[in-house]
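Posting this for the archive.
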Amino acid sequence: MTKKNLLTLLGLALFLFTACEKDLLLEQDLNGVQDQTSSSIIAGNKSGENNGVSYAVKDLSVNPNVVLLNAGNVKIESSKQELSGGSLRVSGVSDELAASFTTSNILYVKSDNYAGLKKIVSVSKTGEGSYDIETVRAQLGEAFDGGSIDVSVDLYKASLAKKKELALRAGYDASHEILNLQDRYDFGNGLTYNPATNIKLLYSLQLKFSKTQILPTEFSNTFEVQLAINPQVNFVGSYNNIKEYELSQYIPQEVLDFIKEQEFEFQIPINTLGIDTLPAVLKVKDIKIPLVIEANISNESAFAYSLNGSFKVGYTVKITGVKPKVTSIYENKIVAVANPSTSETYGELLTDSKIIITPDISILDDAYSVGGDLTLGNKTTTYGHVAIPGKSPVFGSKGVNTTSLTAIVDLILLKVPVEVINTEKVLWNVGTIVKSVIYSDLRYTLGSYKDNTNILSWGINRAYDTQFTLDYKYPIIGKKIPSELIISYDVYEDNGSTKIVSIKDQVIQPTDITATSFKFRQDIPFRGKTTIKIFPPSITTTYQTKAYIKNIVIKDRNDYVYEGIYNTAKGVVEKSWEIKK
């Protein structure tokens, strides 16, 4: 995903966490009805929509033993912090209400700035009508005996009331910059980028309850993203570089600070047994927007493509007793409307863009809370007019959408770590991508040795610190070896047929990199042979003077792979090399 995509997804993150009215009080009249068979209170089947928030309460039954404490029947003297910590001080309590203050009873406590479910641990009478009550957080299932609660928030619609506040507070055109990113950014050295992105987001939450257990029987969270992405990358002249950017630096800091300090609140209407709403809070703890662009471009080049559609990512957790079963939710309808042009890229361009958002969702003072990371991104690989030896110049391009979601759901009694999804979807794959590199003319210098470095692999063998030098050549002008390579090879003793050790996918760091060569170091073992004499008694070890390296494979993390080493003098690819002391 180019920088544009990243900023596009930035728009998503910014929507997600700044978008809604702070107090969405739904005015529908939900009249509780007594369920004659269960003695629970049924809120009924009600639904509605207000300022982008849609809700549905389906057969929701409330435990009739839940005790409501609010300004209508007591004076709550504890602060919000004390209430969160479990300390509840009340006065003006009637004798009838005081009779319900028994251990293990469930309280629904609501003051001006606090709402939570509490289970009574102990009660102390401190005066006439005054009590100190120690509590712990209660489970949602202890308040609800059955039914379900569904809430969906269209953050585009819900954000409208926030835009003026954001613009006034930050001095920032929220409508343009957040919802429709069309600015061109200059990264220097002739590289410019325009995200040209528009994003909308829908967040959904569902909770289901059963009278037989105190945890929700099922809950789900989903994010649905509707987007249009049209990034443009432009180069003036040649460019050979790898650059990493944190794109959030291009968003004014006052806007990011404002986003992170806001709590997006919505109210779930109940209006039964005095419980009017359940407050839910959604906020962002962090936003990161990393972008990597690797370009080895000659001439003036441009890169653009177009995506639109939607995708949905989330999870459903079903709980039997305290055993959770997680099912991922993933639907990807994003399609490529326009693929990169074959005529506008001269060389190699690799982009990897992500947006990583860390959300925090809670209901009723963390009786139900969710944290984790949502990562969205695009990777593109494009080769234009690349001259492969012996072949005509080729063009090829591939675009991949990446999605991952991890979550930690905290239900007080149960914490559920969930790796929801980690997947890729190919958006386009056109032309021919030939990742060609040639490694040639291996040279080496042996350094000092160390004995018994790896007893399990080498036994009594002696390993020599060996510096290798290799030449290399890409068909792309100006492209250099990356900072990491992955190497595999086998080492044989001096007969060339007895294997000493196999090295598989070992990471090496090239040094002294030039346009045509580089160096790297490896420990190469030489076989040791021990001779034992009885008379006169002696033990001696001698070491072979040569070893053989075979089956060498070198690759990098962008899938450039070469097997063997090319010998330019002989014009052949060699598979075995003799290493002498």
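The first strand starts at residue 33 and ends at 34. The radius of gyration is 33 Å.
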